[in-house]
Specification:
Chain lengths: 112, 114
């Protein structure tokens, strides 16, 4: 069964450094999403992406965040200058023509 | 403000027993409601999705109900198994200018014990 994959599974970085989280959505899906989950808290929506542009973003998704679909398979989330409070699990999801979003296994980001 | 409240926060049940998890929402205009199962440290996995016109939907031992008038949903798990131990998250989507706004509940942490 096709699934969403994410790399790396874990990333440790220093405050102020840039990180890029990578996602490979399910191949025929056209809608892509990033979510984050701070430890012990609920999942929060960051951004949705369709037709090579951002279709929706939350107040969390400020200027330090950006998303890109650099080729036909990858979907990336870049955090330009990480802060301690960016430490969280980051989930990518993709959606086809139906309503169900399929989530990846997540990248656990730790900012020191 | 769109909100999704779930109860109970946590629940412990014996293997083989049934349980029901609750979700109340104040999301408008309502598009759909989904229940996800999330194992610790993993991504959420979709269990059911319901639109406004659907009252009930089953997926194996999981049965979700939706009352769009009272803005309540429940997830009933029948004959629980140890592998059902996870967080169950209610997610409600609203249509906003052609896009979907997604609001996650805080989840119910279920532990099934032998």
């Amino acid at each position: 069964e096709p699934e969403v994959t994410q790399t790396p599974s874990h990333q440790v970085t220093q405050m102020g450094q840039e990180v890029i989280l990578r996602c490979v959505p399910i191949s025929n899906h056209l809608y892509f999403y990033w979510y984050r989950q701070i430890l012990g808290q609920k999942v929060e929506f960051l951004v949705s992406f369709y037709n090579n542009e951002i279709s929706e973003k939350s107040e969390i998704f400020d200027d330090q965040f950006s998303v890109e679909r650099p080729d036909g398979s990858n979907f990336t989330l870049k955090i330009r200058s990480t802060k301690l409070e960016d430490s969280a699990m980051y989930f990518c999801a993709s959606k086809g023509p139906g309503e169900t979003q399929y989530f990846g296994p997540g990248t656990r980001l730790l900012v020191l | 403000k769109n909100q999704v409240e779930q109860s109970p926060q946590s629940l412990i049940i014996l293997e083989g027993k049934n349980c029901t998890l609750q979700c109340n929402y104040t999301v408008s205009p309502f598009s759909n409601l989904r229940w996800y199962k999330q194992d610790t440290g993993r991504g959420p996995v979709s269990l059911t999705i319901m639109t406004f016109s659907e009252n009930t939907k089953s997926n194996g031992r999981y049965t979700a109900t939706l009352d769009a008038d009272t803005k309540q949903s429940s997830l009933h798990i029948t004959a629980s198994q140890l592998s059902d131990s996870a967080s169950y998250i209610c997610v409600v989507s609203a249509n906003s200018g052609g896009y979907q706004k997604v609001t996650f509940g805080t989840g119910t942490k279920l532990q099934v014990i032998p």
